[in-house]
Amino acid sequence: MPVQGDAAIVLEHVKKQFGQTVALDDVSLEVRAGSVHALVGQNGSGKSTLVKILTSVYQADEGRVFVSGKEMSFPWQPSHRHGIAVIHQDLGLVDSLSALENFGVGSNYGRSGIRLISRRRESALFRNYSSRLKVDIDPRSLVRDIRPSDRAMLAVMKSLRQLDEAPSQDAHVLVLDEPTVFLPEVEKERLAVLIRNLTDSGAAILLINHDLSQVFGLADTVSVLRDGRIVHHGDVSELNSSSLVAHMLGRELEAFYPERHNSEFGMVALRAKGVAGGTVRNVNLELRHGEIVGLAGLAGMGQDELPYLLAGSIRPRTGSVSLIDNGGTEHIVKSRVQVADSIGMVPANRVQEGLWTGGTVVENLTIADVGGLHAKGFINPRREVKESRPELLKFKVVPPDGKKMAGELSGGNQQKVVMARWLQHGREVQILHEPCSGIDVGASFDLCRVILEASEMGAAILISSSDYLLLASLCDKVLIMRNGELIKELSRDELSQSNIANACQETEVVSQ
Predict the structure, then answer these.
(1) Residues with Cβ < 8 Å from 339, sequence gap 6 or more?
(2) What are the structural domain ranges in the chain?
């Protein structure tokens, strides 16, 4: 491992181009041992391309890359053989494998050659790393069945193992690409302690994160990518949030969140009575037209399941969810199909649950409303493209090309497409699960603006999020969940990031 302070990774004048698009342009960067180096920028600025060059997925068109002082040539061996481990935003886990199998697959289960896998050794290592990170994950559970925060910690365990098994003379670099997207506050703090322990031992951390509080809380230095070029590099201590955002956007951003104007709400649009399912128990709530209601809680307390019970994606074990029409009549929701015209549902995992990556942007926008695009039993492609164009511009999807494949868009633009699908036709109820996770501050501002516009047009909106600042800035009230029940309601006057965090620790059960 390089001596603390030495350069673990060096990029010199790296360029990467795809057709006419220049993804990276003359990028030079050093990641030093024993430090946390933040790499920030809007979605599409070139961060993912840079990581893929580091990990040998892409070959640079120009420039050189050095790891531990040695110039690397393409194709590399797998990056962890050089002491580079990466935790991607999608975590790089296989849903159909167990936690134990995922833990070992990136390290070839500690084998060399064709030796048999030692399940006893793997289980012992799994327990060791679980204890080290203070997480409780059943190694036999399929990844698809464990909660998002545990998946994130499993990815951390897997990457730490890869670093520990790398040759000692190589760089020890952990690349964290949006590592806290699925983590509640307690586990964010645990990861922060782990990062500091790693840097104290001489490891280098390359941190890619849209959560600026994490950047300022963890990083020593920061480099800003904009349009494929490094536009700023320096100590984090020399910046504040406003100046960092200005470097990222190339302009000043007056506020992170648009101002909330609506203060009068209409009649009840959705009512839940005694809803239970999964970890959720006996939830009663109402969503009113024009109101934005937040939902928060510690990991595993039910706030990540309730949105899907309310939207009809999961049928409640007991209780009922009703939509109320203009005449005040309740219509009980029994399936997602039944309420597709009335409820928009934006899931947290946009790639797996909210996006058809093999379809075009236009197809993703119109998939929920194809009935209105029929012409003699067939979809009218010309009309489909024409009617989608204003939505692409309204949501600032880049590029505003309806024929582009959705899987080719950056994460923030994919999220804009998913949001546009449900917000574009004025559905009466909008349920949003982590709507701004894993996207940059500019994209977050754009989406928040559209959310507020939807509420002012009369939509009833529920936002479940671990971003307490988002909830405090947008919501009219925030409901706190604990052990599957609603325990507290914070009014608009009470909303702040710290108040929401503190309320998540309380135990008094409230009923609406």
Answers:
(1) 311, 312, 323, 333
(2) 1-83+171-254, 96-165, 255-342+429-512, 352-426
